[in-house]
Each structure stands twice: as C-alpha cells, then as structure tokens.
Specification:
CLEC16A/TT9, about 70% helix, mainly alpha, CLEC16A/TT9_N, about 325 residues, 17 helices, two-stranded antiparallel ribbon, FPL domain-containing protein, elongated
Length: about 325
C-alpha cells in the first residue's frame, strides 16, 4: 500500500524527498508491524538520492541538511528484532556504489555515520545478513582514495587508533562462503593500495598485523591437509583421493596468488612484514623439517608447491627484490 502511494506522485522532487525524510524521522522504533513501511521509506530515500547525485544537486543538499544518515544510524539502534538490518545495508550499498559526486562521497564518509553503521553490533546468525554487510563494506572500499580514507579512521595524536572498515572486514576473512572471502580480499587490497604511512602503521602493528601470520598459518594448514590426503594409508577410492588433491591444490594456489597480490602493492613496509611471516612461519620450518626428517617423502609435495621455481618466482622474488632495494638505500 505504502509502496504504491510513493510511486503515484513525483518521486524525484525535492518537496517529495522532504516528505519521505519527515516520515522516516517520525519512526521511533522499528518492529514487525512497521518494518515494511520503513523498508519502503529507505528504498525511496536511496532511489531519490541516487537520482539527485547525477541530476539534481538540490536533492543531496536536502539529504545533508536533514542529516539523513543520522536517521539510518538511529533506525539501526531502535531495531526491535525486525530484521531491518539487511535491507538497510543493501540500500546503503546501492547508494554508495552509485555515487559519482566527490562531494557526496566526502559527506557520507564524514561525521562518523558510516563508521557507526560499520561498528554496529549486528547479530550474524547464519542468514543473509553477513552477505549484505560485506557488500556494504566492499562498496565503501570501492570509493576510498587518498583523500577520503582519512575520514574513516580515528586518529589520536600522530597515530591511527581505530579503522573499523579494515578491522571489521577481517572478521570475515575466513568465512565459509567463498564469495564473502573473495569480497574481503578485494576490500583489503583496495585499502592497501590507498593507505598512507599512518594507516600502514596501524595495519602493520599487533594485534591488527596478526592477519598476515594467520594467512601464513592457513597456507601451512592447507599444505598439511594436502600431505594427509597424499600419504593416507587408508582405503580411499582413487577418484576421491584425486578430487581431494585437486581441491587442496586449488586452495593452495589461491592463497599463493593472494600473497602475490599483496606483495604487488609495492609498499616496502608491507612487503617486508609479509615476507618475514612467509619465511619464518612457513619456508624455514618446512626446510628444517625436511632436513631433520628420516622419511624423505614427508612434506615433499607441499614443499614443491611452495619452493619450486615457478611458485618461488611468483611469490617471493618480488618481495626479496623490494627488500634488497630498501637495504641498499640504507647501506650505501
């Protein structure tokens, strides 16, 4: 009913936009009785703002004047198990993805509204909310650059003390859904490519920097799993063993390419830390195990994946060259 009402008049006028905003501001709490109405309001606002960003600057001026993002935050906080979180995140993602105006992006990232939405204590209960949340984070990361990134971090003195977009994203780094993992990695690489020295100091300092050691441990565990399948003495069907080997091999290759993508960012401090984690957490222990092992077959296949010329060049060569350039500048 409400949906047909909004569509029966000029939906893209400033006057109508003010009416929709007024209706949203009248909502004191979101529950199962008014959820659909609130969803219609959110959808209308996002559609009008998206239109106004390209066609009518007065619409976005109205959006800023009435601090509509503050109402989005309020709607989240007054949610009474109405499951309004998912559609709100979905519409926000659409709005941010379709913004072309630098002024609009700058405003949305200012005033802490986006960070409040990112940091909201959502209840991820295995439904679709995680997908909508990660899509929201990725939409934000797709709009950041050297000028807007500073709006999403909290700084105390000369140090970044909080970066919700990055730290909250890492919570989903090993999500069971492959699409979510891929989205998070894309987001992370976007951040690495636009970060300045202050942000890198935050990213490369514990406990946040533990992400890199976790990545190495994940790669190591995948190698161990590959060894387990290869050397299993049980009666596993040949086709089942083959499928298991292919699956684990593909996972290892994916991890190696992700490491390559990180190293290809070309930031010396990032390269140094990632390389140290790879050498200390994977390469050196594997080589040591090979040297002291009485069974020459143990870990052989995993080592081939990590240390054979093709993968060594793919993964480590670029990192070592970057480190050598840095050391050369210091020594000479």
């Amino acid at each position: 009913m409400f949906s047909s009402f909004w569509r029966s008049i000029d939906r893209f006028s400033v006057q109508h936009f003010k009416c929709v905003i007024s209706e949203l501001q009248k909502v004191k709490v979101v529950n199962e009785h008014n959820r659909e109405y609130v969803v219609d309001l959110l959808q209308s606002i996002v559609e009008i703002v998206t239109y106004g960003d390209r066609q009518d600057p007065l619409i976005f001026e109205c959006f800023m004047e009435h601090q509509v993002l503050a109402d989005f935050v309020r709607i989240l906080k007054t949610n009474e198990n109405s499951k309004i979180d998912a559609p709100l995140l979905q519409y926000l993602s659409i709005m941010i993805q379709n913004m072309d105006s630098e002024q609009a992006i700058y405003y949305c990232f200012s005033n802490g509204y986006i960070n409040n939405i990112i940091s909201h204590p959502y209840k991820f209960d295995g439904g679709d909310l995680a997908s909508y949340y990660v899509s929201f984070l990725r939409a934000i990361s797709g709009k950041i650059n050297g000028d807007t990134l500073c709006l999403l971090v909290k700084v105390h003195g000369d140090a970044v003390v909080s970066f919700p977009l990055y730290t909250e994203a890492l919570r989903f780094a090993y999500h069971e859904e492959k699409m979510i993992q891929t989205a998070i990695r894309s987001l992370v690489l976007n951040i690495y490519n636009v970060s300045d020295d202050m942000v890198y100091q935050f990213i490369l300092t514990p406990p946040v920097s533990e992400y890199f050691s976790d990545l190495v441990h994940r790669l190591r565990d995948l190698c161990f799993c590959l060894d387990t399948i290869l050397y299993d003495k049980g009666e596993i069907e040949i086709q089942k063993r083959k499928n298991g080997l292919i699956l684990q091999s593909d996972k290892i290759v994916d991890e190696l390419y992700y490491f390559k993508d990180i190293l290809s960012v070309g930031k010396p401090r990032l390269t140094k830390l990632v390389t140290e984690n790879l050498l200390n957490g994977l390469v050196f222990p594997a080589l040591f195990s090979l040297l002291v092992s009485k069974d020459n077959d143990v870990y052989l296949l995993s080592l081939h994946y990590i240390l054979c010329p093709a993968f060594f060049k793919l993964l480590v060569e670029e990192a070592l060259l970057t480190m050598w350039r840095v050391l050369s500048c210091i020594i000479f």
